[in-house]
Give the backbone structure.
Amino acid sequence: MTGNCHDLKHRYTFGDFLYWNLMAAVPLLTAGAAIAAASTFWLGAYLLVVLACILALYRFFCSHCPHYARDEKTVKCLFMWGVPKFFEPRKAPLKWHEKGLSLLAGLVLTLFPLYWLLDHPGQLMVYVIAVTVVGLTLRRTECSRCIYVDCPANRVPAERQAGAGAPGQTVE
């Protein structure tokens, strides 16, 4: 693999994991700071919502991914590293309700803190810009070379997907 954006990404490194989690930390910490300024109770609720959304994504979305299906005891991908595989890998394509739950989890993560961020215009701007940058960068640099061909965001052309990680296929 030469490292250019057009190569399919068959393996992630710990550096990839650190990079994406640091990028995702900006909107999460910005939202957390705005919520904490108003209420520690709601900060706790936000943290529980974040955890619940991550668990829902892990169960209903990640368990279908070829990176999850590898013969390793832990997950090694963009957003999770060293997390045990609590669920059996699911080799079938995503069902409509799994896609819906994944979309809903992303929307809840994004929209939940807006109530508190509206009281802090500067933090709201940082939050909106950070969420936009994370989303666009992820789409531009990862979705165009992803082996998870059943992902609704996958942008790899069909002719390059052959053998990339079709549902039911473990890639190495």
User: Anything to note?
Assistant: The first strand starts at residue 74 and ends at 76. The chain has one domain: 14-161. Helices lie at 14-38, 40-60, 96-111, 114-117, 121-141, 158-161.
